[in-house]
Amino acid sequence: MKIHELFAYLHVKDAAKAIDFYTTVLGATEKFRLTGPGGRIGHAELDFGCTTLMLADEFPEYGINGPAAYGGTTVTVHLHVDDADAVIKRAAEAGATVEKEPSDQFSGNGPASFAILSAIVGNIGHSIEEVSPEEMQRRYDAATTTDQ
Fold this sequence. Notes:
By secondary structure, this protein is of the alpha/beta class. 24% of the residues lie in helices and 30% in strands.
């Protein structure tokens, strides 16, 4: 078996609003969408240049729910960009809730987090420095030891 690609697939309460957010704020290009007779999006694909994100509306009658139906999400989407500060500013201006302001991290990145559309969480980061896995582990250990 050969795996050709791995796609993230999100189910959200308002897929049209999510598509608008991802295209306007994050610069994704909508490849296509399939809309059912009731107006719900059954499938859409967005091109982020380096990967495709798939998404659809909720279909509770088939057991397909967005994160709000479960009280949150176990999945986040991480987007590595040139300027995390600028993206977070655009996300906030577009109505996203900024959950974590940009800050330097042990990994050598400067990530921040935002939440949109019923608990879909995105992480935005940019490179600050190149850090070896060993140095990341040392920094992680130091950061998590002080948190306890």
